[in-house]
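Human: I wish I could look at a protein chain and see how it folds. This is the protein in question:
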Amino acid sequence: MSAHLTGPASEGVVTPRPRGRPAAGRTEGRTGAARAGAARGALAAVLFDRDGTLVEDVPYNGDPDRVRLLPGARQAVDLLRAAGVATGVVSNQSGIGRGLITDADVRRCNERADALLGGLGTWVYCPHLPEDGCDCRKPRPGLVREAARRLEVPPEQCVVIGDIAADVLAAEAAGARGVLVAGAATRPEEVAAAPRTASDLLTAVRELLAEARGHGA
């Protein structure tokens, strides 16, 4: 079983138009290392964890009526949308593998969250148990790579925002960047070890967009 893909606004996954890529060859005298650094600093997509990051964490929730956005979530997505930055969700949903919820339950909850958030580019989730050894369950990189593929952006131009170390580690494993926004489930040692943190979701997005504007100047 592979990662499950949902796109509430259509059959399959909503995929934005492909973004242009620089032509091969010499680019204004930049070295290969400089070009690689510039590519990594670009912001093509922000991928969010779902529970505890965008919506209140209700363990193994299968009821769309219990989906509640966390403060700043809609505003953060709106800012990215206005800036032309692609968005997606990468989420572990082991309740499916545990038999506590169904795939249909997760899809309905995703659809409810998507509606509250105004529509994101892709929703990707892992239904497996931790002991299954799949490549998609965070902290492994599969969900991040698949979301980037669906959004047609390089993983190194993605940022993953989440509330636990597995989110940040999945980003790093995929070649993306990670931002930890501490919440109720975040352990102090996870905050200490995170390469980057933000006080809240909206602050994280504002800082990323400010950096992206500076990078493009």
Summary: Residues 7-38 have pLDDT under 50 and may be disordered. DSSP finds eight helices and seven strands in the chain.
